[in-house]
Amino acid sequence: MRMRRRSVLAATLAIGLGVAGCGIPDETEVRVDGPGPSPGFASAGGVGDAPPVRESAGSREQFVQNFLLTAAGEPRETYKRVRGYLAPAVQDEFKESQEEPPVNLVRVRSTTVTDDTNGASTATLQVDQVGVLDGDGRVNPPVLTATSYTIGIGQVEGKSGWFVTAPPNVLLLNVSALDSNPLVGYYEPQTIYFWNLERTALVPDLRYMPRAVPPEGQPTEILDRLLGGPSDLLQPAVRRLPAGTKRTGTVPDTGDRLEISLSAEAGAPDYDPADLGRQLMWSLPPSLRKDLEVKVEGQPPRVITMDQAYLDANQVRPFSETPERFAILEGKIYRLKSSPNGGQDSLPSLLSDAVNHDVAFASLASGSGVTAAALVVTRGQGRQLIVGANGGDRPRSFTPVGPENQSIGRPVWLKAPLDTGLVVVQGKLYRFGLDGGGLTQVGLPGIPGAVSAVSAAPDGRRLAVVAGGRLWVAVLGRDDRSVEVLAVRGVTTTLQQLTEVAWSGEGQLTVVGLRAGKSTIGTVTIDSVADADLSYELGGGAVTYLVGAPSPGSVEGNRIMFAAGGKGYDAQGPEPIIQADEIVDGPSNAQPAVAPFFMN
């Protein structure tokens, strides 16, 4: 970890202080409880952005909860905040250091406070380890395995309130401190971006910004995070800034634009400063996004604007507030009225009557002037994948890919470029391409068990996989003939026996699993921080598949559609259950047993 303005926070204890029912009833329909917290940045730092002080607790239980928040917020103040909770007898154990202390995120399952014989108290915590928060706002996988901690509590003569008399031996932070709700948490989830290795698209990297950092300080902080490099998971698949690149000043705001000053290393021949400008533009919160002037030592200034190249850099960008929606009814693809223009636009021309029949699953995607379709169609007693595209030099005709099979899932497309897709066949993951040929198995090192569901992020380099009932995020390497899993990370959720997954935000997944034995839809961020924020309670049968449509620059999202109990559901549609009259030009006697999906 590099050293910069936050190094003063570097505090450790000589002893190593650190903190350290919803479901499917038998006879009910779907109920939409409403969306989760809105994504976006807090508007200002200051009052309310720091954790509560020691004296604010009204009970011992509240004191413990407050103590587990002291490592949150502006890193420069961590040392002062934690030390303020310690009894004088143990304050000297918390010594300032030039290294940042690891902040271990835990999800507290229970807290029990008991009285000791000497008049003091002991708090016993039962926790789940979530990860390690670093100074650049990354949440790395957990390094600890402990599920229980104790904290000694007592009073100090002549002083009011409680003190920590026996701290745990690691620095703990309750994961609730990272809640995106500003009434609960002290950080805002943030997406920063790195270019993929081919420089064809930006790849999101989930971080957390302390709300105590005011808007005027955020551009400099975000630039520092870009200079610090990607998270461990993304490193194999994205480009770092040129080695040795430093900023030579803060990022001032002139009113019309932001000014970035960088050392000469940023002018390396294989890195265009315009790429950095667009990378930083997308990484800024919308309220701060404006033109940039990039100054590299020894080069003339470059002005980067929000032009078409800026828009094209983010593959999520084509999604509008009203994404294109489709549904499969009686083996045929139709538009839904909830699409743009009321769904009155024609179907993509490649979905001619000759091919648009006997469809079980479908995936449509567009990009770079190409529209591609992957259809799983019924063939006698089995099913087969057929693939076609038009636009550019692509023919309209569809080509069968692989043999007929009885167990084949919904295919997904990888973008940037749009030439490759993935599909689950008999519990294994396979690649297919627009260039014809068959199915090629994709190895999943580190992911055990049979694969039941896969979902691709719009950036084309991240994949979510459900295998063996567990959830994983993978980072991909690609060329024109192959897909390789470069790194994986397990994602934990309180839901059990997962079956379905979909990207619903740039850093969020929507999943289907069991809670108390009942099928439930929940959400979880890819770092396991925001877990199972349930917005939907299902009814009428198990979920058979799930799709999502992320929004650009939004960690979280709630645009999902799914099928359950033979019916189609749209979380943002006019009604939760997709009705027959929402299907454009559908048969008059149609039943609402549809399989809905978005255009990617």
Describe this structure in words.
This protein is mainly beta and 600 residues long. The protein has three domains: 174 residues, no CATH class; 124 residues, no CATH class; 274 residues, Neuraminidase (6 Propeller), CATH 2.120.10. The protein contains six helices and 38 strands. The strands form twelve sheets. Strands 5, 6, 7, 8, 9 and 11 form a six-stranded mixed beta sheet that branches. Strand 27 and strand 28 form a beta hairpin. It is globular. The N terminus is likely disordered.
What are the main properties of this structure?
600 residues, mainly beta, Neuraminidase, 3 domains, six-stranded mixed β-sheet, 38 strands, globular
Instruction: State which percent range the strand residues make up.
Output: 35-45%
Number of domains: 3
How many helices?
Answer: 6
CATH evolutionary superfamily of the largest domain: TolB, C-terminal domain
Radius of gyration: 26 Å
